[in-house]
Design brief:
321 residues; alpha/beta; TIM Barrel; 10 helices; globular; binds NADP nicotinamide-adenine-dinucleotide phosphate
């Protein structure tokens, strides 16, 4: 089974990880605890040993609690990453609070929900505009020294913030958004991480399901589905993305894989990328995505993908509209 190392640590992870945002059900209509437990269970048989969750996944930590239920006595078979510094307020709005005392309290609560006394990886989920990045990082360094986590990561920082973070805390992992059509990090962030032996573990490898190739052109998203608000799922961008997916489907079929497998395989073989966090709502989705491991695209297939991406052209910024 393929394993890769996190930063300079001895923690070994599968390059395909389960993103545990959708399993909490809160923003995933139709996802039940039973199907989420089955999705987590499938990871054991598929060779996936890396679970990505956060303090704020689920209204009250449902994602972390489900992980604890699924793992039971098999806790040590999984690398668990969680994050602090973001929470839901009473109006169901996501709030940034990365003060040292909040990060410490959220870490303790996360450990309790996960039923463990330490995680393998603890991230700063996002920078708090009211708190210096180095101040948040300093608290994560203390939690690392106390053994509450075996390594520290950061997410959603720009390059200057990343440098500030690393000056205050040993940094093993950076977690940005990245996929075939969101590639901004290739210019500065990835080279910086490579130079500093920081693993890049990416979110949205399937562009929130768009690049899994199963959303029909006339797909209607449910009201609570966050994809409703993003530019890539509307108008001209949606049509260009669908054309790209049609081309990817042809390449995938030729290589005997699904579109999701082709896309995730491409992602985990880009320079400097350590792992892809694949969200899944059902066991069959993570089964499909796990099939991205254990093989390599041929030079011809890589060239065909590059040509399809060139025809798709520069995408609009992925933002809520
Ligand atoms: N650090 C951060 O700020 C941050 C932000 C976002 C995400 N994350 C992490 O990254 C993970 C991935 O992000 P994500 O879950 O939002 O997006 P994603 O992995 O790009 O897409 C996941 C969605 O794609 C669809 N899907 C997945 N596999 C599929 C398959 N094989 N066939 C068809 N459809 C499939 C499912 O939605 P449908 O079935 O509804 O299409 C699923 O919910 C999260 O779970 C979380 O752990 C971190």
């Amino acid at each position: 089974m393929e394993r890769r190392r996190l930063g300079k640590t001895d923690i070994e992870i599968s390059p395909v990880a389960l993103g545990c945002w959708p399993i909490a059900g809160m923003t995933s209509p139709g996802v039940t605890d039973e199907s989420s437990l089955a999705t987590l269970e499938a990871c054991f048989e598929l060779g996936i040993n890396f679970l990505d969750t956060a303090y704020c996944y689920g209204a009250q930590g449902e994602s972390e609690r489900l992980i604890a239920r699924a793992l039971g006595s098999r806790r040590d078979e999984m690398v668990i990453a969680t994050k602090g510094g973001l929470h839901w307020n009473a109006d169901r709005k996501m709030v940034k609070d990365a003060r040292p005392e909040t990060l410490r309290r959220e870490c303790e609560e996360s450990l309790q929900r996960l039923g463990t006394d330490r995680v393998e990886l603890l991230y700063l989920h996002a920078p708090d505009p009211e708190v210096a990045v180095a101040e948040s990082a300093g608290e994560l360094a203390r939690l690392l020294a106390e053994g509450k986590t075996r390594s520290v990561g950061a997410s959603n920082l720009d390059l200057a913030q990343l440098e500030e973070f690393a000056s205050a805390c040993p940094l093993s992992v950076f977690q940005p958004p990245y996929n075939m059509i969101q590639r901004d990090i290739e210019t500065d962030i990835v080279p910086w991480c490579q130079r500093h032996q920081v693993s890049v573990v990416v979110y949205w490898p399937l562009m929130k399901g768009l690049l899994a190739g199963k959303l029909a052109r006339d797909h209607q998203f449910a009201d609570m589905d966050s994809r409703n608000k993003y530019s890539q799922f509307k108008g001209e961008e949606w049509e260009k993305n669908q054309q790209l997916v049609d081309e990817l489907r042809e390449i995938a079929t030729g290589s005997g894989h699904t579109v999701a497998q082709l896309v995730v395989n491409w992602t985990i073989h880009q320079p400097g990328i350590t792992a892809a966090l694949c969200g899944a709502k059902r066991p069959e989705q993570i089964r499909d995505n796990a099939g991205a491991m254990g093989w390599q695209l041929s030079t011809e297939e890589q060239a065909s993908i590059a040509a399809a991406l060139a025809r798709r052209g520069e995408p609009a910024e992925m933002k809520a509209v």
